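Message: A physicist's question: would you kindly supply an amino acid chain plus C-alpha cells?
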Amino acid sequence: MICVQFIFTPGEYDDEFHRLDGAIEAFARSLRGFVRVETWQSADGRTINATHYFDDREALAELS
C-alpha cells in the first residue's frame, strides 16, 4: 500500500479552488488502485491532513 498526504492550513477559497479540488478528488477516486481517503483536522482547526491510499506505485503515478 502506498499513501500520499496533503497537509495544509485552511483559508478562504474561491469557486475556482473548489472546482479544481473536486475535480482532483474525483480523478483520484476513479483511478484503478485507489483504496480510500482519510481526512484529519487538528483540534484547533488550523491544520488539515488528507491521506490518499493506493494499492501500488503505478496507481499513485497516475495521480501525479
Observations:
- Residues 15-30 form the longest helix (16 residues).
